[in-house]
Specification:
single chain; Alpha-D-Glucose-1,6-Bisphosphate, Chain A, domain 3; alpha/beta; six-stranded antiparallel beta sheet; TATA-Binding Protein; 39% helix; 3 domains
Length: 557
């Protein structure tokens, strides 16, 4: 005799199958129709439940997820409904124009075309970038063209099976609450694709918008500054190469040597496990090329070129090179800006998981300082922003031009700084040592754990809240802040912040873009008698000890 539980499972399976068949009838994409037909024909109830048991959440990062059929995947149905929801939101606020950009990932061009047709069908005007381009070009275009919103089809540095849908409003910043919830409600109310009117009057923009962007970023560099610097560059199979090379040429720099195997856009990202310059091994080909070219500097973008990484020669490293941490590059750029511009005004801003060193640099030069939640959607909204960064390699050096992280303008200013120091017989690590002598050595590290699903992350955070540690790395925990209740005038977010004796700090939070739990570690060590190397050894030992204890607490050891 069947049980009540078996009856419920059977009813759920029938319901999921019915929903899937209705979706199949509406799906305009032959690839996802074939995928869904195979699941239905094979009776794959688990596969159907995974795709139809929930919906991709539209939040402050827009949409991001794996490509595939169903509401819990990125596909033409989900994108069409997202475009319709955004258009309805904009129409209610007298919006008229939407700029749409896209990268070279699988389906990005198709998602951009669908979005343009839906926007036009809703009575708004769609302006589509002329080709696959970096996200900063789209963020620039929103303000440059005085549009009411912008859409960028990209999953940034996510794995190749993913795509995403990032939304900007007319100020050129990514959406935040309450706009995300209001747009999400309109998306939920959007009907099936066959009921959504489509128009075909979208305007394909010319290269003029790219030229305007290039003029803007090239103009950030001092015409009189040195240009003698040998650079190896990798776009990590993304869309950064052509714009980066054009920007360097326009600014008068020698052409960087591009890593040949990673030069062309490749949606499969064939030479890397993850197309993120932070990931181990991602820039190994660039480092090898730098050794061969006797380069001064390695620069890397993520696939949509909104992040910038840099590596410098280091005889102590196995490859002879080491990658700068995001916090180190943030401190270098901040120092470069205050030295470049006499009487600089405004506010420097960073996120709560980034180094507090930026605050000391700002205070030393009479500048404002702000800490925000993680993400440029928050940093970009700081009043009077002059420079903003976050440790995940995101830098905003020109908020009046691109009010978001921009890996291209960031790369240009790093190159200018490296060339300036080279002309003085110095290097980026030399300047980092000077900064440490002045402000104390701020050393940072990360510990991250990848989970199969969000439930594992939730369980780990629940365990931390129920059983908080009392020491980390031998240092007493002076305070524990549960960021889910809001703190320091910050909106609530899922995270915990530990302040340690001696000035250390640990923040633990779920990643906003990947199924990861991340811990951000910082220690601050004085530099007596100017001995940076001794301070660095002390700091690295302290970080390693904190990291080991935290791995045990998180059951990762």
């Amino acid at each position: 005799m069947s049980t009540h539980h078996e009856h419920r499972e059977s009813a759920d399976t029938v319901a999921a199958t019915d929903v899937a068949r209705a979706w199949l009838a509406e799906d305009p994409d032959p690839d996802t129709r074939a995928e869904l037909s195979a699941l239905l024909d094979g009776g794959d109830t688990d596969g159907l439940a995974d795709r139809f048991g929930s919906r991709l959440e539209f939040g402050t990062a827009g949409l991001r997820g794996a490509l595939g059929a169903g509401p819990n995947r990125m596909n033409r149905v989900v994108v069409s409904q997202a475009a319709a929801g955004l258009a309805t939101y904009l129409r209610a606020r007298d919006g008229r124009r939407v700029v749409i950009g896209y990268d070279a990932r699988h389906k990005s061009d198709i998602f951009a075309r669908d979005s343009a047709e839906i926007v036009e069908g809703a009575g708004l005007h769609a302006l589509v970038l002329p080709r696959p381009l970096p996200t900063p070009v789209l963020a620039f275009a929103v303000r440059h063209l005085d549009a009411d919103a912008g859409v960028m089809v990209t999953a940034s540095h996510n794995p190749p099976q993913d795509n995403g849908y990032k939304v900007y409003l007319g100020d050129g910043s990514q959406i935040v609450s309450p706009a995300d919830a209001e747009i999400s409600a309109e998306i939920e109310a959007a009907g099936p694709p066959s009921t959504l009117p489509r128009g075909h009057g979208a305007e394909i923009l010319g290269e003029e918008v790219v030229e305007a962007y290039l003029d803007r970023v090239a103009g950030l560099v001092d015409p009189a500054s040195p240009r003698d610097v040998r650079i190896v560059y990798t776009p990590l199979h993304g869309v950064g190469r052509d714009v980066v090379l054009a920007a360097f040429d326009r600014a008068g720099f020698p052409e960087p040597t591009v890593v040949a195997r990673q030069a062309d856009p490749d949606p499969d990202f064939s030479t890397v496990a993850f197309p993120n310059p932070e990931e181990p091994g991602a820039i190994d080909l660039a480092l090898a090329a730098a050794v061969e070219a006797d380069a001064d500097l390695v620069l890397a973008n993520d696939p949509d070129a909104d992040r910038c990484a840099a590596a410098v020669p280091d005889p102590a490293a196995p490859s002879g090179w080491r990658m700068l941490r995001g916090d180190e590059l943030g401190a270098l750029l901040a120092t470069h800006l205050v030295r470049r511009y006499a009487g600089l005004t405004g506010t420097f801003a960073t996120s709560i998981v980034s180094s507090s060193l930026l605050g000391r640099i700002a205070a030393a030069h009479g500048l404002g300082y702000a800490e925000t939640l993680t993400g440029f959607k928050w940093i970009s909204r700081v009043d009077g922003l002059r420079f903003g960064y976050e440790e995940a390699l995101g830098y905003c050096v020109d908020p009046d031009g691109v009010r978001d992280k921009d890996g291209i303008s960031g790369a240009l200013l790093v190159a200018e700084l490296a060339a300036t120091l080279k002309a003085e017989g110095r290097t980026l690590p030399d300047l980092l040592d000077d900064i440490s002598r002045q402000h104390g050595l701020h050393a940072t590290d990360q510990l991250s754990a990848r989970f199969e699903d969000l439930s594992g992350i939730g369980a780990a955070m629940t365990r931390l809240r129920a059983q908080p540690p009392v020491t980390l790395g031998g240092a007493d925990i002076l305070s524990v802040e549960d960021l889910s209740t809001g703190s320091d005038q910050l909106p609530p977010t899922d995270g915990l912040r530990y302040r340690l004796a001696g000035g250390g700090r640990v923040v633990v939070r779920p990643s906003g873009t990947e199924p990861k739990l991340k811990a951000y570690l910082q220690v601050v060590v004085p530099v007596p008698y100017g001995d940076v190397q001794a301070a660095r050894r002390t700091a690295l030992e302290a970080l390693a000890s904190i990291k080991a204890d935290l791995a045990t607490v998180l059951d990762l050891a």
